[in-house]
Amino acid sequence: MINTKILGNILAKKRKENGYTQKEVADRLEISLKTISNIEAGKDFTVSNLLAYASLLGCYISINEW
Fold first, then answer.
1. d(Cα 20, Cα 12) in Å, to the nearest integer?
2. CA–CA distance from 45 to each of 4, 14, 17, 50, 62 (Å)?
């Protein structure tokens, strides 16, 4: 089982490494800023939003881990 808090921390770190703000990611993915915040906090979010976010950052997440 994936620890969503750890995953969120990894995505936040990758976002910063790529020079994006949360708002820029939200705008590019056409989802709310709150959703990006929730993903990075490991809170309530959809798998499709998570995968889109990871893809934007060049990360790979296997849904088989869920």
1. 9
2. 10, 18, 23, 7, 16
Query: Tens digit of pLDDT for each residue in 40-49?
Result: 999 988 889 9
Domain spans of the chain, in order of start: 4-65
Whether the model pTM is above 0.90: no
> d(Cα 30, Cα 9) in Å, to the nearest integer?
21
What backbone phi and psi angles, to 5 degrees, belong to 19? Answer: 80, 20
Tell me the CATH number for domain 4-65. Answer: 1.10.260.40
CB 22 within 8 A of CB 40: yes
